[in-house]
Amino acid sequence: MRIFAQMAMVMNLDKCIGCHTCSVTCKQTWTNRDGVEYAWFNNVETKPGIGYPKAWEDQERWKGGWALDSSGKLRLVSGGRIRRLTGIFANPDLPSIDDYYEPVTYDFDTLLTQPVGKGMPVARPLSALTGKPTSITWGPNWEDDLAGAGTTATQDPNMKRLAAKAKMEFEKSFMFYLPRICEHCLNPACMSACPSGAIYKRERDGIVLVDQDKCRGWRMCVTGCPYKKIYINHATGLAEKCTFCYPRIEAGLPTVCGETCVGRLRYIGLILYDLDAVEAATLVADHELLEAQRQVFLDPFSPEVIKAAQAQSIPPEWIEAAQRSPVWALAMKHKVALPLHPEYRTLPMVWYIPPLSPVLDVTAEVGGDPVLPDDIFHAVTSLRIPLDYLAELLTAGDTDQVAGVLMKLAAMRAHMRTRTLNAETDHDMLARVGASAEELEDLYRLLGIAKMADRYVIPPAHTEDAAMLNAWTSGCSLSDASGVGPGGVGYPRAASGPVPVELRRRK
Ligand code: SF4
Ligand code: SF4
Questions:
Q1: Positions of E strands within 94-226
Q2: Class in CATH terms, 1-51+145-507
Q3: What is the mean pLDDT of residues 152-174?
Q4: Is 17's C-beta closer than 6 angstroms to any atom of ligand 2?
């Protein structure tokens, strides 16, 4: 058992109000520069919708992530090393700027310098790329609140398997917001796709970064990432991505998106995991992927895990932080958080609590009472439209897993309501979701009234860990000499290593 710590995030989709504050503060911090005008390390999409870049979930088109080949081995969807190398100068599987959007500014000079006249001066949009007048036909928030959903949302890859009737009626029944950042995967396809070995996963906290000095701008990482969360800086020609705000994390502070989230829906914490179990978790059938990834995570309260972690130089306060981790509590203790598209097999580490609100909307629409558990449970199990969609997004199509989470969330609300109004406990309802009153109250504290100190449990980095924070690898945990990655086995236990220069513009 090789124990590693991973900094991870959970987002509660019921609480996102789609204000985009997270996107704007992230942009101001990380991509407010020439060359990355079009890049949003954090973006918020309305679902159903094709998102940003367009239809990023359509891996038949973009060839991102991993898949099992006919012999059951894991292969990059973008192909083996030879195929990728032959495509270095003409990679057909890259989103174009039109798939992201053409960034614009406005002709503010006209507003400021226009002489007094009869008409109102107009600031026309100018392309931020060419400086020439342009017309705005698409953007990262084009589908906000289902705007234009009639033309785009039916092309949402998650809608593919929904019945035709559901496709026609989704506008009436549900929508929700999906904030997205890099998943800082345990098995990052971006890293294995990179021919230069420029992408590395930090040994101490699992944050995935790009070494700007090693990147050669081949763009294979953009194709490899199924979440399309790597961007090319058009000024430097080099890859950039979400850094999980590592300088803040090292100081014990939450990411900028987390700190500024208006809905207080983000949770950040450590997960201990067994590196030796990662490979097996990627090789199971789609419907087993969620449970397989849970098996990779280690119980931070287990005496055996604590002993092994201490023996492997994990600092005591990191073990203690893993025990207090809200990510552990939501993903493993209460099992209400689920991974985004586990079928990409990258073992993503930003998980989501599915939104109950679409089901509540539908409950009310068919005459049910959205505060009565029986009506909600009936809606969860019988009104398939939102459930099927959420399952496509979070469980590789397993509706039972999503239904189980939604019923637990509904039971939590109902339990807190009856306890507050009548000082009673509905034991039948608790039995139906397999949770005790104490568990639901603990979940309520975490989801409803948690303070910042409960939502962000981040142990500061140790100075003596500098080498591990900077330790880099040119391979992923699954790489070997003949394997899918560019070489190198596992995250190295390097005592020292080249110091990466993250996101620095090449001179
Ligand atoms: S989500 Fe992040 S870590 Fe995972 S493959 Fe994409 S860029 Fe790499
Ligand atoms: S700041 Fe929070 S509530 Fe607002 S869009 Fe971002 S994730 Fe949603």
A1: 104-106, 125-127, 176-180, 199-201, 208-210
A2: alpha beta
A3: 72
A4: yes
